[in-house]
């Protein structure tokens, strides 16, 4: 409908003509029937007679004549007698007959009216009146007749004064007329004109006014009977029933004339007159008549009637009066303002005020008691017409509400007056005058205050009424009925709300009666029942928000306002929580969570509250408590439950009921229900209760006699946990629920509009606007049910484009569109959910942990039950209800460890301190791989470099992409094309989401983590049989074998594969006799499955880019650890299978090759017999995979280790050795071609090059000397190929050629040792004679060697020194051409004779002997017999006889390095020739270059002879005693455990530092650093170990001297007996590169001098590297090695590490392209520089064929 104020659509009308407007006709609304002007006046007698005669029957009446007669009768004066009424009777009966036309009937009634008004009441007798009364026949209502007839009746009865004997007839006649006139108003017909409705409205108003006028007259009322009164009341009842049954928005027909603007009579919106926008000259237009709502007419008339008659009516009539008034009040009911002492605003409708006033007088009047009874009766549905019953109940409740409000306002007024009066005092203490309004005083002491109007008296009946209305059946139109029924409940809720408002307005000192609080609770408990029945159109629950209590209907708003109380101040806190919890499924998560916080603050959840268990029962029964929509509520509930549980845990009287309550609730949960981490509080509670009940039951009898009885609550809980853990979920086929994660979206409500103040409670009711609408929104919905009705009918109340409000009832900003939420609220935080079986498993873990890892483990009964729980947990790893539950059990079991005393503990911290689990997880995309492996560097390089195709392995198979790369299904050979499979492939199952990854967050917590059990062990050496204190680890290990054999779930299998190696490294856990059998089975299973590639083929759901080969690759790591269990294998065949499987692994992906190479390196020490058998095949395989540069460092490490174990290659053939040389030399070729295309870094490439030469040297020495020359040609060729493309070979190759020349034909040491023969013969002082020099010396440069020859002038002795890059060779010979003069001859050769006799005695290297003897020569310098005797005696004293060295007993090596004593020395003649040749100079052999400048020689010799002839290394060794962590206390140790001592004995040889000539001392000073040290050497290198325990501490408390050596070492060996992880930076130094940590495989303190063989059978070796340093050792993350082989492995690792760190340091941590220079290379460079200097000073002329040239060539004196 267009707006009433809009003139654009209003039809135009002419300007009003007020001067010619016929007033009388306007009232009738019949302008077309306006009477014509009266005829000219005639004489009265003639007029009367003629007119009467013209109308008297049988004359035909004329309308004009009839009207003239009426006019004539009205103009009769006092001097003219009127005609008698009897003369007019025939005319009146004729005209007023029903057969007469309506105009004639109207004229007849006008004649009667004119006659009666002209003659007065005295001229008409009672008989005449009775006869005239018959003229008013029972005819239908007529627009033309009703006014004339009503005027005639009024004139007949003289407005009620002349009704004697006609009272009953008149009342019936009026009732009939009123009803017939009202019929047209009550029924909406399309053929009814607007003017007709206006006439009917005037008719009803006129007739009812006439009726009221009659009953206003006492003489009239006094003659009425009871039936007359009842009839009148019945009339009102019928009329009001019809009027009030019409809707408030009763539609009126549009006006047919522009003069009338109809208005609706809505109670909620009073009618507004149209705004007048015309010129002020039109204000003369009379006020327009408005069509009223029928109820407005009838209620107004009825109230007017009652105002006249209510006092005189008997109380019995209240039965019919009150329901009509209730209905009228309900019809006009408008929202009431908030209870306040301020003057309330006026009601929006005057009739509502009148009805309210009348009802107020009735219920407070003399019949108050009767009215209360009727009032309560009408609270309930009483009529067959449910609509009438609803209307009546609403009015009755509104009446009660207004009465209660008056009482409440009176209380507030009195309280206010009392407070004000207590403040207003004069200085003398006298109360001052109070300036109070009169109205306030009247309300404070209202007359009806003592009438008992309070909620306490009406609470029960209101509760029953609410219950009755809620249970009322809905017959027809259920939606509409429910909507109106909600209005009834809203009135009840409003009564409660008013009472709560009054509570809030009370002063601080005014207390609220507990009974009043309980009354509110009783009513609210019934009202919320209805709220729980409300549904949204899609079947969901209607949301209610306490944070913003504006509901979709007035009722819901009232309920929300009532419940939204501040628990800190409201007196309703004893009753509100339970009521709110009953509506939990309707409330948003935020409101429920705040409720729990408030309840906890008020101590309602603890035993201090009597109803605490009931409250907990309601909380735990909240629907969807564990759904994603209840995250915050669940969090608070479980947090409070945890705190309450901790409070009552030690009080059995409170603890047991709470535990039983939780147990009962948890048993009712659905198996398909999902839970998050918060639910673990309840599961742990059940676990705690089970343990406590067990402890209480066995408190008096700690034995195991009563353990078999399973009838207690403890066993009920354990059985329940076990059954829930095995529950199968319906959707577990996909197991999506087990990994379900609800994530926060951008449109989540908390993210859009955060709460205004989340730290405080919901806003209190006093701060919420009252129900009185100040400015109601235009689109506000009347009720929830009306909304449902509109949505159901397909007519939405809002625009379709407007999104629906979220379920948490949080309004959104206007500028942000509201998100359309689904049936669940999206929580604000990310939360993962799990099936119930996971919680049950966690509870069982808690039970086991408390029984084992707490002092309860001292009880045998606890251990007995713990063994049962452990058995159940083991079974659950394969039989649990879902994969997540199985994984949870594994997460616990695979972290179990034992210490050195076999005591069980759960390892939480440092669970993967070696990083092995993370490394394995990274292989299958379950962890981030660190940049510490060669494969990682290669992968990064591949990412940076574009490759045309996927790299192929040597055997044609593509490398595994298990580490994240895309997997390509290719054939095993490049030349083979996969054949087409014709059979239908099996459908590939969808892979599961990842359930675990590294870093791993455990879903459970364990009591006393990392604390050894006081009773449970894995093995009892004193009692190997069955014992309650021994955990059956073999049972668990058997289950793992079962999983590994047939597991189909990748999540389970991958977890076991990644965690099993670390657990197996704890050898004390599986050392029982049964475990040994299972270990053998495990080894056999792995060997079989990996050999035939059947392992892990049964897995059904493979993740993307992961397949069985990746699983097999991880399995090799477990096999590597199983090497340490070799004693569990009874025969040698399984050991052979292990090596064979590792050999098979070399054909797999690079990560597996790396693992197998490490395992084979370990097997070189531990499985030497098997390695000897398979080593040739291994070497052949290495030659096939060597093209992969990422494997270079691992292959080189393996070859170095094998080369150090001679027993492994005793059966090698020439071809086998060639394969070794080929591998090493191939890497040299790769390094020399390193143009940026290499996959490894420069530092690693440098290390590989150095180690490749090292491999050539080690393995060349391994070849028997007679066979070495056969390999020289191959090696030389490969070296030259490695230098192809260059103009000259590089320095390392020159060194290699020189080294080959040294060791091909001899096994002599690289440096000569001093001997007694040399000291005597070549002593110049003994050979001197006069001024003639005894010894002559000359030096030549031959290629890359410097040869010095010294000769005795007269004795024939010649000393030849060949200085080369690879060493120093010294020959002492005697020319037999010079005869030796024996004794007895003249001038005998005493020196030669004595030297020959002493040549078998070694010289101790005392250089002072020659110096002393020089002083004792005779004056002329000639050696006498006495001189020689004296020199020999000193030599003999300084060279005591020493026994042969024994490395086991720790023989002390002193002076020189006696390498000859540990090897078989042999020399071929070719050796001598090669040492004196210019080889490997590529120029033709010729004469050497004689050095004539003696000054340059001295400088060169001094510098060159200080250069080591082999590589030297220094390594620090430290012992960490039990409990030590700081560097000072570690360095101050002067001894270690026996195992440590044995390790040192095998690590090197104990040397005596004083006078040491050839062994590298590592910078140790015997006077400061001690006289002894451990060292190891061979023909290639020497290692000096800076052993902290051998260095004296002295007066250095901070051990700075020790730290000066060990802190500067690149590599440190740490023997860690501390029982704690050794930190990488324990020793504070800038040289933090590599730590080789040796520690027991099992944790625990150990005595410093413990020598238990079982403790030291195996050790775990780990290598700690500096950040950014790649892996370069065969240790990997860790290795287990036997004590016998530990020194050899560690020595080899320290050698490799020192080489790599040297390269790493020289390249500035692999950031600079610097080339490392070895000692041999330095010697070569020094020789070449010296040669260049000599040639530059004395250039050699070019050869020519001239005589001069031939002369220079033939003249040998220039060269010799």
Automatic annotation (TrEMBL):
Q: Where is the signal peptide?
A: none
Q: Which GO terms describe its cellular component?
A: nucleus; TSC1-TSC2 complex
Give start and end of each Rap-GAP domain: 1501-1738
* Compositionally biased residues, Polar residues: 790-800
Biased segments, Basic and acidic residues type: 1-10, 936-958
| The protein, known as | Rap-GAP domain-containing protein
Q: Does the keyword Ubl conjugation apply?
A: no
Q: Which residue ranges are recorded for the region named Disordered?
A: 1-42, 255-285, 790-814, 933-984, 1402-1425
Read off the PANTHER family from this record: TUBERIN
- SUPFAM superfamilies hit by this protein: ARM repeat (SSF48371), Rap/Ran-GAP (SSF111347)
Question: What keywords are annotated for this sequence in UniProt?
Answer: GTPase activation
Skewed-composition ranges (Acidic residues) = 1402-1415
Any GO MF annotation of the entry: GTPase activator activity
Does Secreted appear among the keywords? Answer: no
The opening ranks of the lineage are:
Eukaryota, Fungi, Dikarya, Basidiomycota, Agaricomycotina
- UniProt-listed Pfam families: Rap_GAP, Tuberin
A Gene Ontology biological process in which this protein takes part is: negative regulation of TOR signaling
């Amino acid at each position: 409908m267009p707006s009433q104020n809009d003139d654009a659509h209003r039809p135009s009308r002419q300007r009003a003509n007020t001067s010619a407007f016929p007033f009388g006709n306007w009232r009738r609304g019949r302008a077309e029937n306006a009477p014509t002007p009266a005829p000219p006046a005639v004489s009265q007698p003639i007029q009367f007679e003629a007119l009467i005669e013209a109308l008297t029957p049988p004359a035909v009446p004329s309308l004009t004549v009839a009207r003239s007669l009426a006019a004539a009768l009205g103009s009769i004066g006092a001097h003219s007698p009127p005609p008698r009424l009897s003369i007019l009777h025939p005319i009146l009966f004729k005209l007023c007959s029903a057969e007469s036309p309506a105009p004639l009937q109207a004229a007849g009634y006008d004649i009667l009216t004119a006659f009666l008004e002209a003659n007065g009441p005295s001229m008409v007798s009672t008989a005449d009146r009775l006869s005239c009364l018959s003229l008013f026949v029972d005819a239908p209502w007529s627009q033309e007749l009703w006014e004339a007839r009503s005027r005639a009746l009024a004139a007949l009865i003289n407005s009620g004064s002349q009704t004697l004997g006609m009272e009953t007839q008149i009342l019936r006649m009026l009732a009939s007329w009123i009803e017939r006139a009202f019929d047209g108003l009550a029924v909406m017909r399309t053929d009814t004109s607007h003017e007709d409705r206006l006439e009917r409205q005037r008719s009803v108003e006129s007739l009812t006014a006439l009726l009221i006028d009659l009953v206003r007259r006492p003489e009239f009322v006094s003659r009425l009977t009871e039936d007359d009164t009842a009839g009148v009341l019945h009339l009102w009842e019928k009329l009001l029933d019809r009027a009030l049954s019409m809707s408030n928005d009763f539609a009126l027909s549009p006006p047919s004339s522009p003069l009338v603007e109809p208005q609706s009579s809505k109670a909620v919106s009073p009618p507004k007159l149209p705004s007048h926008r015309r010129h002020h000259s039109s204000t003369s237009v009379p006020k327009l008549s408005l069509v009223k709502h029928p109820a407005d007419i009838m209620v107004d008339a009825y109230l007017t009637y009652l105002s006249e008659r209510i006092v005189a009516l008997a109380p019995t009539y209240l039965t019919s009066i009150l329901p009509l008034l209730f209905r009228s009040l309900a019809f006009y009911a408008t929202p009431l303002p908030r209870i306040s002492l301020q003057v309330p605003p006026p009601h929006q409708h005057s009739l509502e005020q009148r009805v309210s006033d009348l009802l107020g007088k009735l219920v407070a009047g003399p019949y108050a008691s009767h009215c209360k009874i009727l009032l309560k009766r009408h609270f309930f549905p009483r009529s067959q017409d449910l609509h009438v019953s609803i209307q009546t109940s609403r009015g009755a409740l509104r009446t009660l509400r207004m009465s209660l409000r008056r009482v409440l306002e009176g209380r507030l007024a009195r309280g206010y007056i009392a407070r004000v009066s207590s403040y207003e005092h004069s200085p003398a203490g006298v109360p001052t005058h109070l300036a109070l309004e009169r109205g306030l005083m009247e309300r404070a002491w209202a007359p009806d205050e003592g009438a008992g109007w309070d909620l306490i008296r009406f609470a029960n009946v209101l509760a029953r009424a609410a219950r009755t209305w809620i249970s009322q059946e809905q017959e027809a139109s259920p939606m509409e009925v429910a909507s109106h029924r909600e209005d009834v409940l809203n009135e009840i809720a409003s009564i409660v709300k008013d009472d709560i408002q009054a509570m809030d307005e009370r002063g601080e000192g005014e207390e609220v009666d507990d009974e009043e609080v309980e009354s509110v609770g009783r009513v609210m408990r019934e009202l919320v029942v209805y709220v729980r029945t409300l549904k949204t159109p899609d079947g969901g629950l209607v949301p209610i928000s306490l944070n913003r209590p504006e509901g979709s209907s007035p009722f819901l708003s009232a309920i929300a306002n009532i419940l939204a109380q501040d628990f800190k101040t409201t007196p309703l806190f004893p009753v509100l929580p339970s009521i709110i919890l009953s509506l939990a499924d309707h409330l948003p998560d935020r409101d429920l969570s705040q409720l729990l916080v408030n309840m906890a603050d008020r101590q309602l959840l603890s035993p201090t509250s009597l109803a605490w268990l009931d409250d907990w029962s309601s909380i735990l029964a909240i629907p969807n408590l564990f759904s994603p929509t209840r995250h915050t509520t669940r969090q608070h509930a479980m947090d409070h439950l945890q705190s309450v549980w901790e409070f009552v845990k030690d009080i059995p009287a409170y603890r047991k009921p709470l535990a039983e309550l939780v147990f009962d609730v948890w048993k009712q949960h659905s198996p398909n229900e999902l839970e998050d981490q918060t639910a673990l509080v309840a599961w742990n509670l059940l676990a705690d209760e089970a343990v406590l009940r067990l402890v209480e039951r066995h408190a008096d009898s700690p034995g195991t006699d009563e353990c078999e009885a399973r009838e207690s609550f403890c066993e009920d809980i354990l059985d329940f946990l076990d059954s829930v853990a095995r529950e199968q979920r319906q959707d577990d086929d996909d197991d999506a629920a087990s990994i379900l994660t609800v994530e926060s979206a951008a449109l989540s409500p908390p993210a859009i509009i955060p709460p205004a103040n989340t730290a405080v409670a919901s806003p209190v009711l006093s701060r919420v606007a009252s129900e009185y609408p100040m400015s109601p929104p235009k689109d506000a919905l009347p009720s929830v049910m009306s909304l449902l009705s509109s949505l159901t009918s397909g007519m939405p109340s809002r625009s379709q484009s407007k999104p629906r409000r979220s379920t948490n009832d949080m309004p959104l900003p206007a500028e942000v569109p509201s998100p359309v939420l689904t049936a669940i609220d999206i929580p604000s935080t990310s939360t993962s959910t799990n099936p119930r079986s996971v919680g049950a498993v966690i509870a069982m873990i808690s039970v086991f942990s408390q029984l084992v890892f707490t002092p309860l483990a001292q009880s045998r009964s606890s251990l007995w039950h713990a063994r049962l729980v452990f058995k159940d947990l083991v079974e659950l790893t394969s039989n649990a209800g879902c994969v997540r539950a199985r994984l949870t059990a594994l997460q616990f079991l695979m972290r179990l460890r034992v210490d050195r005393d076999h005591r069980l503990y759960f390892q939480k911290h440092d669970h993967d301190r070696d990083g092995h689990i993370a490394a394995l997880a990274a292989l299958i995309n379950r962890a981030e791989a660190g940049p510490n492996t060669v494969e990682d560097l290669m992968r990064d390089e591949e990412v940076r470099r574009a490759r045309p195709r996927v790299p192929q392995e040597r055997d044609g198979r593509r490398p595994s992409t298990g580490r994240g790369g895309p997997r390509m299904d290719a054939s095993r050979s490049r030349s083979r094309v996969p054949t087409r499979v014709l059979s239908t492939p099996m459908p590939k199952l969808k892979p599961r989401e990842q359930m675990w990854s590294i870093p791993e967050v455990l879903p459970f917590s364990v009591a006393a983590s990392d604390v050894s059990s006081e009773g449970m062990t894995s093995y009892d050496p004193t009692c190997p049989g069955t014992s309650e204190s021994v955990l059956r680890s073999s049972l668990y290990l058997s289950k793992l074998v079962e999983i590994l054999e047939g597991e189909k779930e990748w999540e389970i299998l991958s977890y076991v594969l990644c965690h099993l190696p670390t657990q197996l490294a704890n050898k004390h856990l599986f050392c029982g006799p049964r475990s040994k059998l299972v270990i053998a089975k495990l080894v056999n299973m792995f060997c079989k499955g990996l050999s035939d590639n059947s392992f892990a083929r049964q897995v059904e759901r493979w993740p993307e880019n992961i397949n069985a080969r990746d699983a097999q690759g991880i399995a090799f790591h477990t096999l590597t650890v199983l090497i340490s269990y070799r004693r569990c294998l009874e025969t040698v065949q399984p050991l052979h299978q292990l090596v064979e499987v590792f050999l098979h692994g070399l054909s797999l992906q690079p990560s597996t090759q790396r693992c197998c190479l490490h395992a084979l390196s370990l097997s070189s020490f531990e499985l030497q017999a098997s390695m000897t058998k398979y080593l040739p095949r291994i070497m052949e395989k290495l030659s096939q995979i060597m093209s992969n540069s990422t494997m270079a460092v691992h292959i080189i490490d393996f070859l170095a280790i094998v080369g150090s174990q001679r027993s492994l290659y005793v059966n090698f053939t020439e071809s086998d050795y060639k394969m070794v040389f080929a591998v090493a030399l191939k890497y040299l070729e790769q390094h020399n071609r390193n143009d940026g295309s290499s996959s490894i870094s420069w530092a690693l490439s440098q290390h590989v090059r150095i180690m490749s030469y090292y491999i050539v040297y080690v393995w060349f020495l391994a070849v028997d000397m007679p066979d070495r020359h056969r390999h020289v040609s191959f090696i030389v060729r490969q070296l030259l190929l490695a230098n192809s493309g260059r103009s000259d070979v590089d320095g390392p190759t020159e060194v290699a050629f020189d080294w080959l020349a040294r060791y091909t034909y001899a096994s002599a040491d690289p440096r000569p040792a001093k001997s007694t023969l040399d000291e005597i013969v070549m002593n110049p002082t003994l050979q001197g004679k006069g001024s003639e020099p005894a010894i002559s010396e000359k030096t030549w440069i031959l290629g890359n060697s410097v040869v010095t020859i010294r000769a005795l002038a007269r004795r024939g002795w010649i000393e030849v020194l060949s200085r080369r890059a690879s060493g120093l060779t010294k020959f002492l010979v005697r020319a037999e051409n010079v005869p030796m003069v024996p004794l007895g001859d003249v001038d005998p050769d005493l020196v030669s004779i004595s030297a020959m006799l002493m040549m078998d005695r070694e010289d101790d290297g005392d250089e002072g002997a020659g110096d002393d003897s020089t002083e004792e020569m005779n004056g002329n310098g000639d050696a006498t017999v006495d001189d020689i005797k004296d020199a020999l005696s000193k030599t003999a004293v300084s060279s005591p006889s020493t026994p042969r060295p024994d490395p086991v007993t720790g023989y002390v090596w002193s002076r020189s390095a006696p390498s000859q004593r540990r090897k078989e020395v042999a020399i071929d003649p070719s050796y001598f020739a090669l040492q004196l040749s210019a080889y490997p100079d590529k120029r033709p052999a010729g004469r050497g270059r004689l050095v004539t400048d003696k000054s340059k020689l001295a400088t060169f010799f001094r510098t060159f002879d200080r250069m080591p002839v082999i590589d030297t290394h220094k390594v620090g060794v430290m012992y960490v005693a039990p409990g030590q962590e700081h560097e000072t206390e570690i360095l101050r140790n002067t001894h270690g455990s026996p195992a440590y001592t044995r390790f040192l004995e095998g690590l090197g040889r104990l040397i005596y530092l004083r006078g040491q000539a050839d062994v590298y001392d590592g910078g140790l000073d015997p006077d400061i650093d001690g006289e002894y040290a451990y060292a190891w050497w061979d023909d290639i290198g020497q290692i000096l170990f800076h052993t902290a325990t051998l260095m004296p501490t002295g007066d250095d408390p901070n051990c700075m001297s020790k730290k000066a050596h060990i802190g500067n070492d690149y590599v440190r060996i740490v023997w860690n007996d501390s029982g704690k992880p050794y930190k990488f930076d324990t020793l504070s130094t800038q040289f933090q590169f590599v730590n080789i940590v040796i520690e027991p495989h099992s944790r625990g303190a150990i005595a410093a001098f413990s020598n238990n063989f079982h403790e030291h059978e195996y050790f775990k070796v780990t290598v700690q590297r500096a950040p950014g340093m790649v892996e370069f050792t065969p240790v990997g993350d860790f290795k287990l090695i036997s004590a016998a082989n530990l020194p050899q492995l560690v020595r080899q690792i320290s050698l490799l590490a020192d080489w790599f760190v040297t390269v790493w340091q020289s390249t500035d941590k692999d950031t600079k392209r610097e080339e490392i220079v070895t000692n041999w290379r330095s010697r070569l460079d020094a020789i070449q520089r010296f040669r260049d200097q000599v040639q530059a000073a004395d250039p050699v002329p070019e050869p020519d064929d001239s005589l001069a040239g031939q002369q220079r060539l033939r003249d040998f004196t220039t060269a010799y």
